[in-house]
Structure to design on (177 residues):
């Protein structure tokens, strides 16, 4: 079914030009994804950019595999030595690159990711009970991120049907401190 806006009428019945009506312009601007209220901020170094990341923060780290990851921001976090991070990313890097560097330094407490296969330090910490892990299928991870950004508190996915999750179990292993 297609909808079409044929005309807008004011309370007095006169036609309104939506491009000249301040109330409509303000209302439509409120739904815009860009805003003039927030101007970009430029930092002179990575440490300055991550200075407000505190103990126990949750970080959403972009990239796919080792491509497109924020290498400089990861190096900034290494310098801050902030601990207890929960990191949401599709992977955990490798031993000497990407998030693997933060793992090696013991800064990540919990990983929420879809792939963790090529990181020996990740494996060691997980099996040793030092690292909490929540494995999430790639499509579900992407939808969780999208839904969270849109303010949607929950959504349904049949991904876990017939698995431990479906039967009331939990795929999350918590760290033992």
């Amino acid at each position: 079914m297609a909808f079409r806006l044929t005309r807008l009428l004011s309370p007095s019945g006169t036609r309104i030009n939506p491009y000249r009506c301040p109330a409509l312009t303000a209302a439509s601007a409120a739904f815009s994804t860009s805003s003039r209220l927030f101007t970009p901020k430029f930092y002179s170094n990575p440490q300055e950019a991550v200075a407000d990341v505190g103990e126990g923060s949750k970080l959403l780290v972009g990239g796919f595999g080792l491509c497109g990851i924020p290498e400089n921001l990861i190096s900034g976090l290494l310098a801050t030595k902030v601990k207890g991070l929960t990191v949401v990313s599709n992977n955990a890097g490798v031993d000497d690159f990407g998030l693997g560097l933060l793992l090696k330094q013991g800064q990540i407490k919990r990983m929420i990711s879809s792939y963790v296969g090529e990181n020996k330090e990740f494996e060691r910490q997980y099996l040793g009970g030092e690292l909490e892990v929540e494995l999430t299928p790639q499509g579900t991870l992407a939808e969780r991120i999208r839904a969270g950004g849109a303010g949607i508190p929950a959504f349904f996915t049949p991904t876990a049907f017939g698995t431990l999750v479906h039967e009331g179990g939990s795929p999350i292993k918590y760290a033992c401190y």
